Amino acid sequence: MTTPALDIIHLNKTYNGHHAVDDISFSIEPGEIFGLLGPNGAGKSTTINMISGVTRIDKGTITVFGYDNQKAYRTTRRMIGVMHQEVVIDNFFTIDQTLRFHAGYYGIPDDPQWRTTLIDRLGLRPHLHKVMIKLSGGLKRRFMIAKALIHKPNLLILDEPTAGVDVELRHTLWEFIREINHQGTTILLTTHYLEEAEQMCKRIAIMNHGKLITLEETHRLLQQFGARRVMVRLNRPYPELPNGLDAFSVEPLDPFSLRLTLPNQMTVSELLIVLQRLDLPIVDLETERAGLEDIFLQITQSKEPT
Ligand code: ADP
Question: What is the four-CA torsion angle of 197, 198, 200, 205, rounded to 10 degrees?
Answer without folding.
Answer: 60
